[in-house]
UniProtKB/TrEMBL annotation:
PANTHER family attached to this UniProt entry: 2-NITROPROPANE DIOXYGENASE (PTHR32332), MONOOXYGENASE RV1533-RELATED (PTHR32332:SF38)
Domain of life: Bacteria
Gene3D superfamilies given in the database record: Aldolase class I
Species, as recorded: Nocardioides marmorisolisilvae
Name of the protein in question: Nitronate monooxygenase
InterPro entries: Aldolase_TIM, NMO
Flavoprotein as UniProt keyword: yes
Length: 366
């Protein structure tokens, strides 16, 4: 399974695992893949710094990456514009009334946190600054091409830059702006995703960027056969995410409602919606997402206003311990995540099935 990208990044297998859990990311790296820590949940640089210190000490010296959320164009934050003041009252009322109807209680007094600031451009920049004080080999941007100065900053530290793309023209634009690796994000993927399925998208992007730019296939990858198919389509590796949401190392916090929802979900139990961030993202389909589709529901706000609007609701739903109302990005591959397994076992199964698939295809070729 070794590709040129493995040599370039110093990893054994071209299996990239995006996860908000440092424990999962570290375990993937120790198992020979590249764990990529999602930074959007960190509201301040000190918190992220502490977690990356832990990553440095718990990856056995093996490489890891980080994932940020940064638009190329700087939004209105940092000016006199008050983002919270831009949220219409009807949206605030809708969220509160929906939570009441779904039986989601308020957080206990003294609990809760400020809205997730990692979606803001300024916070994402601080994530880059902190990350480059550690030893990631890759910085990935979930919103496409990061600003040119951020790419230059990463390259000065010898760190490669990856960006997600949902169309060939977007991938070509990323490369023209200095991005090193393209993540071909198919329609099946969890989180922000476009409208083209990975079987069509991956070869389209491989052709659009040419043979010198490595492409990672993403979306609908959860077994070794799918890894083999991705490499057959021209990718140099796979970018996985939802696969790791039910592993034993995933930190459940105070509630396991999200994991219970994921374990019982099938491949048809997701929906592509703007209700999570303001941009189209694939989520678990449940009573919360259904409420936004009802007649009279307001249209989701653009990013980052939608994030600010629903951040407290997400915290309340997570604490409610009800799997029918959790807000969670998840791809269609969750139909395969129906048991809790350790990261090492998942990696071993991916590799073994990949090898079996390649052997079977070689026999077919004769």
């Amino acid at each position: 399974m070794r590709t040129e990208l493995c040599e370039r990044l110093g990893i054994e297998y071209p299996i990239f695992a995006f996860t908000p859990s440092e424990k999962v990311a570290a375990a993937v790296s120790r198992a020979g893949g590249l764990g990529v820590l999602g930074c959007v949940r960190f509201n301040d640089a000190e918190e992220l710094d502490g977690v990356l210190n832990w990553m440095d000490e718990n990856t056995d010296g093996k490489p890891y990456g980080v994932d940020i959320v940064m638009p190329m164009k700087i939004p209105t934050e940092g000016t006199s514009v008050d983002l919270k003041a831009m949220i219409p009252g009807e949206h605030i009322s809708f969220v509160e009334e929906t939570l009441r109807k779904l039986g989601v209680p308020p957080l206990p007094d003294g609990e809760g946190r400020e809205g997730v600031l990692g979606w803001l451009h300024s916070t994402a920049r601080s994530h880059v600054d902190v990350a480059l004080q550690h030893r990631p080999v890759l910085i990935a941007n979930a919103l496409g091409t990061p600003p040119n100065d951020v790419i230059e900053q990463a390259h000065e530290h010898g760190v490669l830059v990856a960006a997600l793309a949902g169309a060939g023209k977007h991938a070509a634009s990323h490369v023209a702006n200095g991005v090193d690796i393209i993540v071909s994000q198919g329609y099946e993927a969890g989180g922000h995703t476009g409208e083209i399925a990975s079987m069509v998208l991956t070869p389209e992007i491989v052709d659009s960027v040419g043979p010198d730019v490595p492409v990672l296939a993403a979306g609908g990858i959860g077994c070794g056969r799918q890894v083999a198919a991705s490499l057959a389509l021209g990718a140099q590796g796979v970018w996985t995410g939802s696969l790791w949401l039910t592993v034993a190392e995933y930190d459940l916090g105070s509630s396991d409602a999200i994991q219970r929802a994921l374990l019982k979900a099938g491949s048809a139990d997701t929906v592509r919606s703007r209700v999570y961030t303001g941009k189209p993202a694939r989520l678990l389909k449940n009573k919360w997402t259904a409420a936004w589709e009802e007649e009279g529901a307001p249209a989701p706000l653009p990013m980052p206003l939608q994030n600010i609007l629903v951040s407290d609701a997400h915290n309340r739903m997570s604490a409610a311990d009800d799997p029918d109302v959790v807000a969670m990005p998840a791809g269609q591959i969750i139909g395969r995540t129906n048991e809790v397994r350790p990261v090492a076992q998942v990696m071993a199964e991916l590799i073994a099935e990949y090898e079996e698939t390649v052997t079977r295809l070689e026999k077919i070729r004769g």
